């Protein structure tokens, strides 16, 4: 990990978790289905990842893709998942829950908020500080952290060290230095993934194990050690 900065890498496989740590990540966000923005990983995935890495593993708690307005039954699932991941070694939780008007559902938010869908980010930040939240993962309420940089900078200034502002969303080797220098943050979130061809020799192109917008059947996305190292080097040289 680059001194002064902490890189969090979101991963959805054991291979990605190992690669992220090898590349110098300081923390993992563990989930399944990054194609959907991440949902709760299986206990099996959590257990095996914990066997192979030493850095902290924060587990996504999200019962489905889509918005962050959850039904009572979905909340039941989330509460049970929280119990299970905590009992199986999760070092922290990553989740967010909103009311129908886009405000924080304080009862459901425990460690992290789905910040980029809130109605008023500046007011919401004060709510989170008062509730004792540790950090906010945000793209600056925009399509990427680079586009949301003005708001990220304002949030850092308003936070005044009371809560960690962690930019994420489209962070690459091309824009990381600008984001770090312009925002004043000390942590950042990325996936640092590359495409990897499936090892399958027999391939049935007529069968697709999902909807039409799913990832290619015989292509994988995994955290790339070289990309993680490159991002870490950029962060270190930004000091």
Describe the structure using short key phrases.
239 residues, alpha/beta, 9 strands
Q: End-to-end distance, in Å?
A: 13 Å
Q: Radius of gyration, Cα only, in angstroms?
A: 18 Å
How many E-type strands? 9
Structural class: alpha/beta
**N-to-C series of helices and strands:** EHEHEHEHEHEHEEEH
Biggest sheet strand line-up: 4-3-2-1-7
Estimate the strand proportion. 15-25%
Organism: Oncorhynchus tshawytscha
Keywords: Copper, Cytoplasm, Metal-binding, Nucleus
Protein name: Copper homeostasis protein cutC homolog
GO cellular component, one term: cytoplasm
Write up this protein:
The protein is of the alpha/beta class. The protein is built from 7 helices and 9 strands; from the N terminus they run E-H-E-H-E-H-E-H-E-H-E-H-E-E-E-H. Strands 4-3-2-1-7 form a 5-stranded parallel β-sheet, covered by helices on one side. Helix 4 packs parallel to helix 5 (149-159) and helix 6 packs parallel to helix 7. It starts with 5 loop residues before the first strand and ends with a helix. The mean pLDDT is 89. It comes from Oncorhynchus tshawytscha. InterPro entries: CutC-like, CutC-like_dom_sf. This is Copper homeostasis protein cutC homolog. One of its GO terms (cellular component) is nucleus.
């Amino acid at each position: 990990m680059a001194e002064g900065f902490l890189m969090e890498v979101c991963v959805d496989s054991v291979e990605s978790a190992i690669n992220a740590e090898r590349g110098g990540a300081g923390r993992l966000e563990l989930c399944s289905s990054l194609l959907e923005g991440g949902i709760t990983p299986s206990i099996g995935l959590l257990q095996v990842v914990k066997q192979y890495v030493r850095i902290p593993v924060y587990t996504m708690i999200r019962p489905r893709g889509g918005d962050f307005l959850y039904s009572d039954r979905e909340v039941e699932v989330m509460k049970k998942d929280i119990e299970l991941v905590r009992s199986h070694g999760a070092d922290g939780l990553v989740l967010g829950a909103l009311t129908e008007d886009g405000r924080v559902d304080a009862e459901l938010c425990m460690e992290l908020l789905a910040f980029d869908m809130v109605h008023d980010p500046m007011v919401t930040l004060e709510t989170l500080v008062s509730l004792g939240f540790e950090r906010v993962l945000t793209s600056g309420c925009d399509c990427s952290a680079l586009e949301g940089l003005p708001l990220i900078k304002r949030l850092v200034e308003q936070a005044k060290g009371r809560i960690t502002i962690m930019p994420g969303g489209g962070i690459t080797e091309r824009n990381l230095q600008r984001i770090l220098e312009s925002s004043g943050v000390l942590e950042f979130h990325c996936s640092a993934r590359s495409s990897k061809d499936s090892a399958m020799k027999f391939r049935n192109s007529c069968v697709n194990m999902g909807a039409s917008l799913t990832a290619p059947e015989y292509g994988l996305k995994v955290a790339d050690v070289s990309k993680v190292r490159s991002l870490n080097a950029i962060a270190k040289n930004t000091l």
